[in-house]
Amino acid sequence: MRFRIETDRTFSLSKHQFFAILAGVIGALAFMPLAGVGVLIFVAFVPLLRVLDEIATDGRPKPLARTFRVTYLFGVFFNLGLLYWIAIVRPILIAGMVGAVAVLAGYYALMGVLAVWMRRRGFSLQLTVPFLWLGMDYWLNQTELAIPWGNLGYALTYFPTLLQFIAITGIIGATFWIMLVNVLLFDAQMAANYRKWGIHLSLIGVVIGTAWLHGVWTIQRGLPADTPHIRVGLVQPSYPMKLKWADEFEEFVINEQLEMSATLLPQHPDLILWAETSVPAHLYYKPLYRHKLAQFARDHRTPLFVGAPHTVFDENRRRFVYNAAFLFDEQGRMSPFYAKMRLVPFAERMPYQERFPFLQKYDLGQANFSKGTEFTIFETPKGKFGAGICYETVFPNLSREMLRHGADFLVTITNDTWFGPSPAPYQHANMHRMRCIENRVSLARCANSGVSLFADPFGRVLKKTPFYEVTTLVADIPLRTQTTFYTRYGDLLVQLGLIVLAGMLLTALIRKERSGETVGGY
After folding, report:
1. Which residues in 329-442 belong to E strands, given as ranges?
2. CA 261, CA 302: separation in Å to the nearest integer?
3. On the chain, which terminus has fewer CB atoms closer than 10 Å, C or N?
4. Are strands 319-328 and 304-313 parallel, antiparallel or unpaired?
5. Bridge partners of residue 415, in order along the sequence
6. In 3-state terms, what secondary structure has residue 433?
7. Using one digit for the tens of pLDDT, what is the confidence trace for 286-324?
């Protein structure tokens, strides 16, 4: 079966290519920041499963090569649907976006090849695909190329009740649950009669219903009545990138944010937050700005947390430039800095450039920041907090480690102006809320241009700001009173799933050796 589009040249898609593209498009749509569309994630990959099953069983030559091509095509459309906005809002990063999509698509192609390879050795797709996808999403959080924008659980950020179980599994564990629903639906559409349809649909109801009931119970149980709170104020300016970094506007940018901070003082905040690189200057080399910030905090007895670039020279006079954050405490003292540890590949840094130094000479528009190496827990009279800068807060383990180091609540500072009028600022903000559920902790998120928000320990938005609006925001947020399974043990359950996957892969290898035959070639 082939689909043809008649133009001056004939263009055709095979059925398998069509279904792969369809799955990629539906999967990407599920991540759009629109209430309700996230449920598409439960059905998005059924067309892809059908393709994999047909390739594995049709007896035609080179099934693995065909699988690689078709799942790579799926990966391209899925990741392009998630990341296309980069090319629109930052044309200078087009090459980086293309590189990221090309690399990410390769992971999906590898997963598809393994699924078909195992299917041809007696393992059903229904069994292997949830484990394989789980392994891929886990891997996508580990490397310097990590861009976990497509971790499946993030499609359901508008349904926090459904995701309360990630306090046990972490957001990556939601991948297994989502793919379990997909394979059950795939199994149902393959069923020969209505009775089997009913059985499979009942199982789907149990899988989703159990998560929902657990979420309802968790949220209704709530927090202890004596939970302490901290009052946090956010300052959200909206500076265009070129204006913000122009030398002649440095002092204006800082003074305006100080004025906005002063409007928060009648509400008696215990902490005021500014956004990522809200100070467009190196504070250690600009004592005037440093003294202004310290004086504000000291005069008003209110800690002030700001983002700024920071340069350090080592004993060999090597220069390291960090995307950093500083706290001025209520006495005006400047804290040790925190340097962003997870940098955006191809945008803030060329991946693996220490291992392969020749990569440093390639310019894809990246900022070439250095990676931070140490956690910093900031202290205020009302509680301690860990701060993630921008993109790194989408990595679950980073926030978890901050809490294990003693944080009572989480802070995110970010500059989402460059996202422009795209889905990205809303997706980015929603991803950060998942750290609340995983660790049962509150979040204060301050963004240049927005979206700034406060979220409670159940991932629900308490207050938020519109995008591109100059404003301030204050809220009382609860401090952490419990340690979740995920905070204590991290991705333990996911790792157990990977052990199961490793066992299946080993068994598939043994079966191949025992049979001594290859059907249809590779």
Report:
1. 338-339, 377-380, 383-389, 409-415
2. 10
3. N
4. antiparallel
5. 448
6. helix
7. 999 999 999 999 999 999 999 999 988 877 888 888 999
The 3-state secondary structure of 101-162 reads HHHHHHHHHHHHHHHHHHHCCCCCHHHHHHHHHHHHHHHCCCCCCCCHHHCHHHHHCCCHHH
Is the per-residue pLDDT at 111 higher than 50? yes
| DSSP-assigned letter for residue 369 | P
Length of the chain: 522
Token pair recorded at residue 44: 């998005």
pLDDT in tens, 418-444: 888 899 999 999 999 999 999 999 999
Model confidence pTM above 0.85: yes
Residues 18, 48: Cα–Cα separation, whole Å: 10
| Residue 5 CB neighbours (<10 A) | 9
CB under 8 Å to 36, separation ≥6 — which residues?
Answer: 158
On whether the CB atoms of residues 367 and 418 are closer than 8 A, the answer is: no
Residues near 306 by Cβ (< 8 Å), separated by ≥ 6?
274, 278, 279, 293, 325, 326, 328
- pLDDT tens for each residue of 23-37: 999 999 999 999 899
Predicted pLDDT of residue 353: 67
- Sole residue written with tokens 């950020």: 157
Angle at 374 between CA 373 and CA 375, to 5 degrees: 135
Alpha helices in 314-439 (DSSP H): 396-404, 424-439
Q: Which residues, in sequence order, are CB contacts of 287 under 8 Å at separation 6+?
A: none
Q: Three-class SS of residue 507?
A: helix
Catalogue the long-range contacts made by 188-195 (C-beta closer than 8 Å, 24 or more residues apart). Answer: 189/46, 189/50
- On whether the CB atoms of residues 311 and 281 are closer than 8 A, the answer is no
Q: Which sign does the torsion angle of CA 343, 347, 351, 357 carry?
A: negative
Lowest mean pLDDT among 253-257, 345-349, 514-518: 514-518
In the chain the domains, ranked by start, together with CATH numbers, are 2-221+491-515 (no CATH), 229-281+305-323+335-488 (3.60.110.10)
As a whole number of Å, the CA-based R_g of the chain is 25
